[in-house]
Amino acid sequence: MQLYPRDMNLCGSWGNVLVLKRRREWHGYNPVLLEYNQGDIFPDDVDIIIGGGGQDSGQDSIQEDFQKIGSRLHELAKEDTPMLMICGLYQLCGRFFKTLDGRVIKGIELLDIETHAGNERLIGNIITKSHEFGEIIGYENHSGQTFLGKKVHALGLVQKGAGNNGQDATEGARVRNIVGSYLHGSLLPKNPAIADFLIEKAITKRYGEFVPTVIDDRFAQLARNIAIKRPR
Amino acid sequence: MPKQYITILGKTVRRIAQLRGGGSALPGLFVETIDPDFISHTLAQLPQGIIVISGTNGKTTTTKMVVELLESQGLKVFTNRTGSNFTRGVAAALLGEITVKGVLDADIAVLELDEAHAVHFVTKIPPRYSLLLNVMRDQLDRFGEIDATAKMLETVAVNTSEGIVLNREDPRIARIANVIHNKKIDYFGLDPSLKSLFPSDDELRGEHRNNDKKPIADVLLTKLDGQTATFAIGRKEITTSLKLRGVYNIYNAAAALALVRLVVGKKLDDEKLMSTLANITPAFGRGETLTIGGQPLELVLVKNPSGFRLGLKSFAPEGYATMIAINDNYADGRDMSWLWDVGFDSLREHGVAELSGMRAYDMALRLQYDEIEISHVEADLKKALRHFIASADDKPKRIYCTYTAMLTLRRELANITNVEVIS
Questions:
Q1: DSSP letters along A167-216, please?
Q2: Contact, A77 vs A83, CB < 8 A?
Q3: How many structural domains does chain A have?
Q4: Cβ contacts from A onto B, under 8 A
Q5: For residues B240 and B223, what is the distance between their CA atoms, to the nearest angstrom?
Q6: Which residues contact B235 (CB under 8 A, 6 or more apart)?
Q7: DSSP 8-state symbol, B106
Q8: How far is A192 from chain B (nearest CA, A)?
Q9: What is the CATH number of the domain that holds A171?
Q10: Which of B145, B205, B336 sits opposite A14 (nearest CB)?
Q11: Which domains does chain B have, with CATH numbers?
């Protein structure tokens, strides 16, 4: 299920949704795409949740609604529902976002992270290394600087680029089956290992076991090889 | 340094840059550096002032239309024809036109400026009129966000002295009217029956929202059938055939008409206006057609998801061999996420013959997830172009390409066929 496709559809969100849909099909399952927008009824039966980033105005407009569905997302997280939160919703899953003029926007505290608005935009190609997923390749574009608390660990360690805050070499956040990250590109197409992790967790949860097929990821590999060589 | 020398020096640098086959910005940079007021001094001479055209998509073709339509009304027009839509490009274009004494023989200037440069420009040199086309998700890595880009265009409007033409259908553009006082505002728009052809950036996915009451448009595109369009202009309805291709180019014709009506006013010769419009051809790389081995080859510039989507919608793939070339230089946008915001279903039936550019494999990956067949991938543009032409020599061809990929392809095509050299 995609969160707020109407207001938070930047950062290649659709790419992430499409990759999960197709790969599930290729693995032999029949996915149903759901969308949740402001004011909708939150569905009872969800396997994977995907959230993206938006314009500042989009972000402002969903905050209240996001607080309302916060407890539902906490329940799902506790049941180990896989979630992918990128950019804006990654920040709002944290404890708070502090703006440049000192205003504090509450997050839903799904992730033990906090974000402070920065003066500089961290933009460019980025490569990180994760013990779970290997090299993660994408593109970052954010001015918020995110710091991890004790209850999460980094999704990856920055090899090239800025990452969460440009200071401590961390990028993204991981806890249970939640993946939080700043990476666009979209993230999942060029990092099929993360896509398959989310799918495996969802399928295992629903059917007890996951029997993967071999998917031809040659183009993903070739695109990764090129992306690694591109300038920041 | 005396102005005369600066002009001569600048013209010399321009000539040398041309001989080197280089871009248009270098001589402009040169003059800007030694005489920062060069542009304002030179343009201040024009009796009818300056028009600025800005927005995400369609600037180049719209500017070309406005220039030709103003010329049809007997005006001498100066423009930055090179498509180098930065301040430097304007300086470079000026160098080509002025006399050694620094006199520009024109009545009015029509300048195409990219959003960020438009802001920079209008705060130094306020235009008399401006035309603001649209704000779409373009190169967010360059400007940050759409709302920030809209703010830039608002600055252009605020700094315009007499009249502004706005796109009624783009909510972020239409909203600019709220901050404009004591200036004339005209709108161009679409009949509701055509609205689905042009989703605004907020409507690209998800249902169409019913907008609030809209202002009356001075020029409205009411019907579109291939290359025959009907415009409601003031109180008249006029149907005309066009040489322009692509629905977005035709919509921008409504923008150009509204602007020219505002600038020329009561003296407007409608007949000349419409007959000129009917004969305007697309600008360089914006659906222009070349001939290779007796078959047409179309170049379609794609810079952002909305432009790519409109391109795919405008040109039917039947009977054509399709190539896509994606680069990721600064001018193309470095973030590949945008490819994922375009749906390629329309290419499924006929497949794609050739993929190229630095990010050819990102494009291949994108098409894999839309389950579209790809015949050949070759990152090197020159090799890919030759392979594409050889493999589809009996068919009309179409190449969707990003900006810098287009420049390389055009240069290469010039070796094969007769391509207009853009100085």
A1: SS-EESEEETTEEEE--BS-HHHH-HHHHHHHHHHHHHHHHS---PPPP-
A2: yes
A3: 1
A4: 92
A5: 10
A6: none
A7: -
A8: 11
A9: 3.40.50.880
A10: B205
A11: 3-278 (3.40.1190.10), 286-416 (3.90.190.20)
Find, among B363, B282, B358, B306, the residue nearest to B149 by Cα.
B306
Tell me how long chain A is: 232
Give the torsion sign (CA, B228, B71, B411, B408): negative
Distance CA(B15)–CA(B248), nearest Å, equals 35
Residue-number span of the structural domain to which A88 is assigned: 2-229
Distances (CA, A) of A165 to A120, A153, B95, B98: 10, 14, 46, 51
* A76-121 tens-digit pLDDT: 999 999 999 999 999 999 999 999 899 999 999 999 999 999 999 8
In this prediction the ipTM stands at 0.96
Give the mutation candidate from B203, B369, B373, B375 for the A interface (greatest A CB count, under 10 A).
Answer: B369
Whether B109 and B43 have beta carbons less than 8 Å apart is answered as yes
C-alpha distance across the termini of chain A, in Å: 32
Q: Do B369 and A14 touch (CB under 8 A)?
A: no
Tell me the pTM. 0.78
Query: What amino acid is encoded at A27 in this protein?
Result: H
CB distance A217 to A224 below 8 Å: no
Percent of chain A at pLDDT exceeding 70: 100
Tell me: pLDDT of B206 over 50. no
